[in-house]
Design brief:
alpha/beta; 8-stranded parallel barrel; about 15% strand; binds SN-glycerol-3-phosphate
């Protein structure tokens, strides 16, 4: 499973790229607003350091979405155009996919929506786990079901588990067979952490320091 960062914060992306663990980024209008940057400038900047950067469309009608999607795709070859799981979003996505643009169908909450994403030749489908959990549904079960349905149907669209809120979501997404997990930087940081790792380093360092101390002469 590939790991993506779900942020538009350049410094976070730069750090995670330097750690060597992420191979893509997902953004949305909320994350771009949080970064406080112009959409085009920020996406182009992110594309300089990592591949598969999802940029979201904000128009609603098919024809407008096609124009917008072409514009986003023209920014950089690493751009993946996000369209929502609506009739207009999917219709525009199909036209854009036919032109060779990589499409990420976002705001997916059911297996049926994922099947529609597959039908238009989407590159990614993004089931939103945390938002389903928020309304009392089992978001990860939807990811599991999409993976099973896609395998049964030999679908090429990749399952990108999104709206992941904590480290167990990442583990569960991997066990579910998701192709990609996109996570906030704080969750990525938490993935490294274990008290036994910290305690082990402390002990190894203490023992190493002992070997550096002058040893009493042996008789
Ligand atoms: O990748 C989708 C993500 O940005 C949504 O996450 O936590 O706002 O539901 P969240």
């Amino acid at each position: 499973m590939r790991l993506f960062l779900d942020t538009a914060d350049y410094d976070e992306i730069r750090t995670a790229v330097d750690w060597g663990v992420i191979s893509g980024v997902t953004t949305n209008p909320t994350l771009i607003a949080r970064a406080g940057q112009d959409h085009e400038t920020q996406v182009k900047r992110i594309c300089q350091i990592v591949g598969d950067v999802s940029a979201e469309t904000v128009t609603e009608r098919k024809d407008d979405l096609i124009v917008e999607g072409r514009r986003l795709a023209s920014w950089h070859p690493n751009v993946v155009v996000k369209v929502a799981s609506t009739p207009d979003g999917l219709a525009a996505g199909k036209v854009l996919a036919g032109e060779g643009v990589k499409i990420n169908v976002t705001l997916c909450f059911t297996v049926n929506q994922a099947l529609l994403a597959a039908a238009i030749g989407a590159y990614f489908v993004s089931p939103f786990v945390g938002r389903l959990d928020d309304i009392g549904e089992d978001g990860m079960q939807v990811v599991r079901d999409i993976v099973v349905a896609y395998r049964a149907q030999n679908v090429q669209t990749k399952v990108l588990a999104a709206s992941l809120r904590h480290p167990m979501h990442v583990t569960e997404a991997a066990l579910a067979g998701a192709d990609v997990a996109t996570l906030p930087f704080t969750v990525l940081e938490q993935m490294y952490k274990h008290p036994l790792t910290d305690a082990g380093i402390e002990r190894f360092m203490a023992d190493y320091r002992k070997t550096q101390e002058p040893q009493p002469a042996k008789r």
